[in-house]
Amino acid sequence: MSTTRVSARLRAPRAAVYRALTDPALLARWRFPDGMTSVVEPQEHGAFRVTLRYDAPDAQGKTTAHSDAYTARFTRLVRDELVVEVDEFDTTDPALAGPMTLTVTLRDHDGGTELLAVHEGVPAAIAPEDNALGWRMALDRLAALLAA
C-alpha cells in the first residue's frame, strides 16, 4: 500500500472548494483523470458510488472490462476546512481490495484556497506515480471548474 500527497492552489474561496468536494453532482464534473468520464450516484447514509469509464476501448478496468467503480462515504466533515472520506473499489481482485482514506484539508491562501489531499491505503496494484498523476489531472479539472 502507498500514500499519495498532492496539493493545489485554487482561485476560489474555501466554501466553493468544499462544496466541490462534497456535492456529488460537482464531484462527477472533476474528480477523474484524463481519458475517463465519471458518474456519481448518491447512496443511503451519505455514501456515494463512483463509476469511472475509460474512453479508450482497449483500456482495462478494475471493476469491469472498461470501468473502475468504488463506493465512498464521508467519515468526517468540517465545513470549509476538512473532508475525510473512505473509498473501496468494487472488485473481486484481492490486490485492489480494502479501504482507502482520503483526507482533504483546505486553508486560505493569497485570496484563494490551498488544498492538500492525502490518499492513504492505495493498493500496491496501483503505481504511486499513476495515482499522483491522476490526482494532478483531477485537480487541474477542479481548478478549471472553480474558475468558470
The global form is globular
Number of strands: 7
- Number of helical segments with 4 or more residues: 3
Low-confidence stretches: none
The ordered H/E elements are EHHEEEEEEH
Q: From the helix content, strand content and strand pairing, which structural class follows? A: alpha+beta
Which percent band covers the strand fraction? 35-45%
CATH topology: Alpha-D-Glucose-1,6-Bisphosphate, Chain A, domain 4
The overall pLDDT, averaged over residues, is 94
Helix percentage: 10-25%
CATH architecture: 2-Layer Sandwich
Biggest sheet architecture: 7 strands, antiparallel
Give the total of domains: 1
Adjacency order of strands in the biggest sheet: 1-7-6-5-4-3-2
CATH-assigned homologous superfamily: START domain
Q: Kindly, what is the distance between the CA atoms of the first and last residues, rounded to a whole number of angstroms? A: 36 Å
Based on CA atoms alone, the radius of gyration comes out at 15 Å
What would a concise description of this structure say?
Pfam families: AHSA1 (PF08327). The protein is of the alpha+beta class and 148 residues long. The protein has one domain: START domain (Alpha-D-Glucose-1,6-Bisphosphate, Chain A, domain 4).
General description of the model:
This protein has 148 residues and is of the alpha+beta class. The chain has a single domain, classed as 2-Layer Sandwich (Alpha-D-Glucose-1,6-Bisphosphate, Chain A, domain 4). It has three helices and seven strands, in the order βααββββββα. A seven-stranded antiparallel sheet has the order 1-7-6-5-4-3-2. It is globular and about 45 Å long. The termini are far apart. The relative contact order is 0.26. The model has no long low-confidence stretch (mean pLDDT 94). Pfam families: AHSA1 (PF08327).
